[in-house]
Amino acid sequence: MTNATDGFAALADDTRRDIFERLAKRPLSVGELAEKLPVSRPAVSQHLKILKAAGLVVDHAEGTRRVYRVDPRGVEAMRGYLDRFWDRALAAFKEAVEEEKDS
Amino acid sequence: MTNATDGFAALADDTRRDIFERLAKRPLSVGELAEKLPVSRPAVSQHLKILKAAGLVVDHAEGTRRVYRVDPRGVEAMRGYLDRFWDRALAAFKEAVEEEKDS
DNA sequence: ACTTACGGTAAGTCATGACTAACGCAACGG
DNA sequence: CCGTTGCGTTAGTCATGACTTACCGTAAGT
User: How confident is the model over B56-70, as a mean pLDDT?
Assistant: First the structure.
């Protein structure tokens, strides 16, 4: 878990990205999310399960409700993955552009 | 294109992430990629089409071959998306942890 | 021109996954 | 207690997408 690669699959779905962005604004319960979204409550529950497995959200009980919030550590893991490629890709890209100018 | 959200779907697939990581090391042709991967050449071609649409790679002709390389701008776009949530999520997360200690 | 190398496209198959309805379970409130 | 609220899970359906085979276009080499 908190394996950056799972995060991509988690955020690939539109509904899940919607949920993620709403939780980024403020913590919400499953029911509160389902109200705003065009899908059923069980669907939201399943999406949250996937986001949680990817390390992007955490939940805690609050009476009978379960409140979810974004876990910045999961976001950081994905940033770290992209960073590993960014430096190298940027250097190689600029170099290629320079050679292109020699036409 | 270069829309960060398409990048998540693009990197969600294992084969596509494999292609992306190989291209990050050095530019490669379609055939060179297909040699190393456990899928057919047309499959690689289709994956590259998706990565290109997501703004993560660019291609250029080289004789009859087409050489693909990583486009750092696409990577940067995804980083930017994650950054928008990271600050806010981190602050909210720390605050919640502090309240948790009051138990 | 003919052939060969290289790659994108089309059509069809099969697995994955997003969704709903129905059910089960725990935590309060009367 | 007993009903209600709030979630998670299961089973089943339907759409999406990853893959292969076959085919077509294009750019050299002879």
Answer: 96
